């Protein structure tokens, strides 16, 4: 077995990929072009219980983490991300990758399928993603939005603009 490449510091990793389910983590790890050993000089924060996989996709060194098995939801995702950032302050972009079970189909032109990448785009005063549990049921089968998630990082919105221009 070939020894894994080791980078000389955790600062070489600027993208974090968080998976909610173990099967989604397996898919993330299968996407790696190259797996790495834990970087030299990596110091885990005392509150960080995450298990990491280090590697490269294309030109980007990424670190993969997942929610604890059997523990799901926004609190678990926030804990995983906070712990990751405490140990890896060089992370610039973090993505939670998983199955978008709550993606609406507002019209027939929206053909969203398993495997598609969906990213929130700010509109007006909204950040672009309305979290499923941020709605309040009202009488008459109506719903009232209680809130929304913040907008994606500018670096991702710039990439989105480039993709949109390509498709024009």
From TrEMBL:
Q: Which domain of life is it from?
A: Eukaryota
Which is a GO BP term held by this UniProt record? nucleoside metabolic process
GO terms for molecular function, please?
catalytic activity
The protein, known as: Nucleoside phosphorylase domain-containing protein
């Amino acid at each position: 077995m070939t020894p894994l490449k080791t980078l000389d510091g955790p600062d070489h990793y600027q993208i974090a990929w968080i998976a909610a389910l173990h099967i989604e983590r397996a898919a993330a790890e299968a996407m790696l072009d190259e797996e790495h050993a834990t970087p030299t000089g990596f110091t885990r924060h005392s509150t960080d219980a995450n298990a990491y996989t280090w590697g490269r996709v294309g030109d980007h060194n990424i670190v993969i983490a997942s929610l604890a098995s059997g523990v799901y939801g926004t609190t678990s995702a926030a804990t995983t991300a906070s712990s990751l950032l405490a140990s890896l302050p060089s992370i610039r972009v973090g993505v939670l990758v998983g199955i978008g079970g709550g993606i609406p189909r507002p019209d027939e032109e929206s053909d969203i399928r398993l495997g598609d990448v969906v990213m929130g785009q700010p509109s007006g005063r909204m950040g672009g993603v309305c979290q499923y549990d941020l709605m309040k049921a009202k009488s008459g089968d109506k719903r009232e939005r209680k809130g929304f998630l913040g907008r994606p990082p500018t670096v991702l919105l710039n990439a989105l603009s480039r993709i949109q221009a390509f498709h024009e």
